[in-house]
Amino acid sequence: MTGERIEEAIVDLGEKELGKGKFEGKDIYVQIAQFDFGMKSKNPLMGLYVYTKQDPNKAVPFNRDMVSQLLLPRIFSERIVRVYCKAEDKDKKKDMKEAAQKWAEQLPKAADAEQSK
């Protein structure tokens, strides 16, 4: 989902569901930040080579069985959506915040998304 589509969704939500038609797309700015390990959703440890006590001079590919499963994350990327209100009017800011929070509540939670895989 792009920033523009999120802006439209928040404005539509504010107008239709919350009855707040006072703000427009020009009053809102959405920034999407993607955080990963440079490998998108792939496990960055799978490209790692390690040295073992059995052969300290030879690097071998990392294997998940080398460490406890409790230490390994299952999610390797994260997306953060920041919504900024450009309007200076306090009522617009309040309405925009309410619409943005309502939009965020409708998103699937990370735990739910992980379980549905």
From TrEMBL:
Top-rank lineage group of the source organism: Eukaryota
Region described as Disordered: spans on this chain: 89-117
Ranges annotated as biased composition (Basic and acidic residues): 89-100
Identification of the protein by name: Uncharacterized protein
Organism in which the protein naturally occurs: Elysia crispata
